[in-house]
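// run 5 | inverse folding | seed 20
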């Protein structure tokens, strides 16, 4: 009986995880989470890590506002809707195939310095409320090391060569740790990564660390 109970529990957990992975957020679910009293930061984090199908038309936005959804959450919904779904990967492709390409177009992933030297544009995304993208971009543009990279900051990930993903480390309420990864958007390769804290100015701290990581990647020192 004990063995049957354990097997039943394992099966139930597997089904629960599978259902959670298949969950698709829509306007109704976001409204329900908001009205249930979940914080804006928790809802934004859920939006950033889930499949979504939002109605961000003018009417959809009006309905969200009438339902009392916070502007920060609505902004995250709009931003999430602007990110295209990742390209499908053929199950028949080999491990060396770059995602989004067929077997006949398999290409090796370039080195970090080669990627950096060919990159012209960069975009930023985040799963945390802080810092604002505008504050981070302002701090980056003030830095000479970032200016020397000759990267143009773009609004949309889909049109940028590089993409920086920023997130808050859950459980670090005392140390306030934030992590970031820099991706080559075309191949999906991580070319730089790091972390910092929000002590002082989070936007300034992130700008300093990201600029240094990008500079090191360009010189091949990552």
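// decoded
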């Amino acid at each position: 009986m004990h063995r049957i109970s354990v097997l039943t529990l394992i099966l139930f957990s597997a089904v629960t995880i599978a259902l959670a992975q298949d969950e698709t957020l829509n306007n109704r679910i976001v409204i329900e989470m908001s009205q249930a009293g979940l914080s804006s930061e928790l809802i934004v984090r859920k939006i950033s890590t889930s499949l979504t199908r939002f109605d961000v038309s003018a009417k959809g936005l009006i309905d969200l506002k009438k339902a009392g959804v916070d502007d920060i959450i609505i902004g995250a919904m709009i931003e999430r809707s602007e990110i295209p779904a990742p390209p499908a990967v053929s199950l028949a492709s080999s491990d060396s195939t770059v995602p989004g390409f067929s077997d006949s177009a398999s290409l090796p992933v370039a080195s970090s310095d080669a990627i950096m030297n060919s990159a012209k544009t960069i975009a930023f995304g985040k799963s945390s409320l802080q810092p604002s993208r505008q504050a981070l971009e302002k701090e980056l543009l003030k830095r000479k090391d970032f200016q020397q990279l000759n990267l143009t900051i773009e609004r949309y990930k889909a049109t940028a060569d590089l993409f920086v993903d920023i997130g808050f480390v859950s459980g670090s309420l005392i140390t306030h740790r934030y992590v970031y990864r820099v991706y080559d958007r075309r191949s999906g390769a991580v070319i730089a990564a790091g972390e910092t804290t929000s002590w002082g100015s989070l936007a300034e701290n992130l700008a300093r660390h990201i600029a240094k990581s990008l500079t090191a990647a360009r010189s091949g020192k990552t």
